[in-house]
Predict the structure.
Amino acid sequence: MIEQLAGNGRVLLTVNENGEWNELFYPHPGLFQHLREMRLGVYDVRERKFAWLRRGNGYSMATAPDGAGNLPGSRWTGAGVTLHVQDLVHPNHDLVMRVIRVRADPPRPLRIFSYHSFHIAESMYQDTAYVDPSARSLVHYKRGFYFGFFSDPTFTRAACGEHTLKGLQGTYVDAEDGVLDGRTIAHGAADSALQFDIDPVADRDTTVHLFLAIGRSPSAIAATREYVRAGGPERFEEEARAFWQAWVGRRQPKAPAGLSERIAQLYASSMLVMRHATGTNGAIIASPDTASLVIGGDTYNYCWWRDGGYVSKAMDEAGLYEYSRRFLDFAMSCQSPDGSFLHRHFPDGAIGSTWHPPPFLQVDQTATVIAATWHHFKHGRDPDVLLDLWPLVKGAANFLTEFRDPATRLPASSFDLWEERQGIHAYSTAAVVHALERAARIAQELGKDPARWRAASQEIHTAAVEKFWDPGTSRFVRSLSPRSDALDASLLLSLKLGFLPWDDPRARQMVDQIEARLWKPGTGGLARYEGDQYYGTENPWIVCTLWLAEARLRLGNRDRCRELLEWVAEHETATRLLPEQIDSATGAPKSATPLTWSHSTFVDVVHKYTQPAPDSDPGDS
């Protein structure tokens, strides 16, 4: 599971619970995942004893995030040896740094081994690894991706080999006798190892700086390597630390009155997760987690327009205005010719995989991008932004106006926000109503005619309140065509978008019904809907619990909102990450971790809590 991460908008590194590099994305967060495995080993020269740094190998381990930027770190202790390992990504160079500080009591000679295997461009074949003695470096490459290791002090030995194919285990085996003596070049399923001979003592650190320069050509990684050597390793380590210290200091607000310090710390972590999940091109990935490949055959490393739109809104709330704008520009570059947004896209803008039949969309996602555009303008008040994004808004709003069921005049059938059922859904309908009204406001700001979109919004809203309401059960159904009466937490999100005024008695009734049925009494937290079987039976979800928190706040119960925010903070991981859901039996994190939408929703509700008075327009959020 991912426990720590670091990135710069192009490179994204994740670190797992064993302190090992887990994923390495480049040139976008979420694309491509180039890493197969990386591990560290220690050889005691006098005792002739080797161990990989793994729990149970004679070493105890604790994660140790560093500083305000939560920079990944781990501390290993065993056999009189302590290793403090810290991983950093430079803010403006495509450079990963692994800083290894070693002490030994009693002092004695040790050898540190670093093993690495890649699957460059997400394939482990046709790679090359070679040692370049003239540059004192070790390079892996394939096609237009180059990864160059170098260090201070320079590694003592290096070896290249192969893994997986031909019955081979991997070059890590070469390290286990305490000395590397393998080849200096290999191709195919290539891997490599580096050896560092050091003499650590008990009262001060012996430090190894291991660098990985990443680029699209040999000259690119060579330029980074020589630039670092000219400036000295400590300079680049300090630059990475100082940048994130300053970034968090500028971005993190004071702890909100009445909320715990833990919430303030999770807020800061959530800001970092949103930042790391956003590429320099504006793509926002749902999660860097790739663990779902084993269960579902795919990952969360895509840009969903619903997730991205809500993350964009939270970034505006938190002052990350420029990242929100980049997302909207990215969205405009990915918009379909008919104005809609398809299911999901890769972080480079290519159309992502889908399990939905044509037209490959969930109508609420198109709506969410319009709403995010208005929200962005509301915070920045810059009409030029609306002018730049007008083609996006016009195309999407015209699509939503036409994408209607001829019999009901509601939005036509598409998949729901949970991506499981096709039909005419209450939440999707509320999202369209909200978006068309926002499109009308944008048109009005630009001096254009808002009448058509406003009329469509009002027509759909009137029909929706009538057709989704069941007088027999005195509650709203979640979908039509086919009809589903299951209670669904997404109805809370519909209220957030103004489906009903908060002072309508039916709004409170809906919130009460959902909490009574979907609240999990054992672990706490709110499930998605009745009968949910995704990764377990009715697991509580972070976003659903936060929707309930905002609903209670809007209904005047600040205490319940605060309780729910604290519940979310209590269910962060040890390194302040929020999962998609919580196991209803054990309370452990479940599914994608971290989920960017979980973090952004937390940020959004904390902001709503600090400004509790309802907006004059209850759906303007």
About this structure: The mean pLDDT is 95. The first helix runs from residue 172 to 175.
